[in-house]
Amino acid sequence: MQRVLIAFVLLTFIALNAGCTRRMAPFSPHRSNSEAHIQATTNQECLQCHELKDVGKGHQASDDCMRCHRIVQGD
């Protein structure tokens, strides 16, 4: 019985961990609702204003900016 419980907890942990890596990062900074941000739809457009060295924290040029950094509505 204990093996079944350990296997269940382990499988649940693996499933939750895999699911969490595919969703938007909850603490990533969101883009302000400006005209430039609304029109930006590709990484190249983002990198025209934001230099990769300033962004930091392990970001690479091939990363998808739009996956985590969404537009904030309102002020």
Concise synopsis of the structure shown:
The protein has 75 residues and is mostly helical. It has helices at residues 2-20, 35-39, 43-49, 52-55, 65-68. It has one domain.
Strand-helix topology:
Layout lengths: L1 H19 L14 H5 L3 H7 L2 H4 L9 H4 L7
Task: Give structural notes.
The chain has 75 residues and is mostly helical. The protein has one domain (2-68). It contains five helices and no strands. It has helices spanning 2-20, 35-39, 43-49, 52-55, 65-68.
Question: Key features?
Answer:
single chain, 75 residues, mainly alpha, 0% strand
Cα-atom radius of gyration: 18 Å
Give the number of helices: 5
Helix/sheet category: mainly alpha
> Would you tell me the overall average pLDDT?
76
* Distance between the amino and carboxyl termini: 54 Å
